Amino acid sequence: MTTASQTTAPTTTGPTAPAPWLPVAAGAVTLVMWASAFVVIRHVAHDVSPGALGSGRLLVAALVVLPLVLRRGWVRPNRREWTLLAVGGIGWFGIYNLALNAGERHVDAGTAAMIIQIGPVIVALLAVPLFGERLHAWLLGGMVVGFAGVAVIARGSSTSADASLLGVLLVLVAAAMYAVGVLTQKVLLRRLPSVQVVLVSFLMGAVTCLPFSGDLPAIVADGGAELWWIVYLGVFPTAVAFTTWAYALTHTDAGALSLTTFLAPLIATLVAWLTIDEVPPSLTFLGGALAIVGVLMTRHKPRPAA
Predict the structure, then answer these.
(1) Global pTM?
(2) Could you tell me the end-to-end alpha-carbon distance of the chain, in angstroms, rounded to an integer?
(3) What DSSP string describes 266-279?
């Protein structure tokens, strides 16, 4: 016999939680795509100018996310938000792509991926004056260890001392621009939709790269392999990867997910070894490990004083 309470069980009206494996799969797809970008850039770096590679990639990505913005609707930014959009778009997506693309002419894909890992250390450093975060001993120690890792990487890239040092410095500039982008988006995403912020950033970055993209029209007209690699970079490591990352971030712990980005250099090194037969110098792995330890130290929060 069925009771009244059993026959009138409440129905769930909230959103259904995704299957546990979906956020994990989304995060894994993101990491593989981001890692593959370092390998593709390295593969075409000597055939395509840094500007053409950056502007083409960003214009393709903008076309992919444009329908999402049109469906979501436009939120009008205020003057301060336009300033932050310009700083983030020009810095993270413009200068970042120019510096990374140029840097990978001189350093291998795995090395570049390891140097980019220093970005969170720079974020922690800049957050002190910008957001009033505390400058504690763990932060200072992490910065020292992290930048020591970059120095070891520079020392390990010794195939051509001047060229490899230039490459390390260029990728380090890209890491700094990544930090600028993270900090500006931290403010912008309080009110503006993420897809809108990304679209405007893509377009501003593309405009920044265009003056250095004299070979882009010829690449498009030729329709060769270089064009399709640019399309790949725009669709998958840029537009799709940012979408899958946002999905994974929505359904998992942010701290735990962010730690998985340390797998990107390992994946990039493996993909580069399998596809273009390229492995970083052994000393580079030691530098990469130091950089990761430095990042972990900066994320350690000291106990509050009694």
Answers:
(1) 0.83
(2) 60
(3) HHHHHHHHHHH---
Q: Per residue in 213-263, pLDDT tens?
A: 999 999 999 989 999 999 999 999 998 987 787 777 667 665 555 666 778
Q: Could you write out the DSSP letters of every residue in 79-130?
A: HHHHHHHHHHIIIIIIIHHHHHHHHTTTS-HHHHHHHHTTHHHHHHHHHHHH
For residue range 2-50, what is the model confidence (pLDDT) as tens digits? 344 444 444 444 456 677 778 788 888 888 999 999 999 999 999 999 9
Nearest-angstrom CA–CA distance, 39 and 31: 13
Residues near 217 by beta carbon (within 8 Å), at least 6 away in sequence = none
What span, in angstroms and rounded, lies between the C-alpha atoms of 205 and 99?
12
Q: What is the DSSP letter of 192?
A: S
Grouping H, G, I as helix, E, B as strand and the rest as coil, residue 156 is helix
Percent helix, strand, coil in the chain (nearest 5)?
80, 0, 20
Tell me how many helices (H) and strands (E) the chain has.
16, 0
Determine the Cα–Cα distance for residues 166 and 58; give it in Å rounded to an integer: 25
Longest distance between any two alpha carbons in the chain, whole Å: 85
Q: Are the C-beta atoms of 219 and 52 separated by less than 8 Å?
A: yes
Are 142 and 294 in contact by the 8 Å Cβ rule? The answer is: yes
C-alpha distances out from residue 77 to 181, 211, 242, Å: 17, 27, 21
Residue with tokens 């390295």: 42
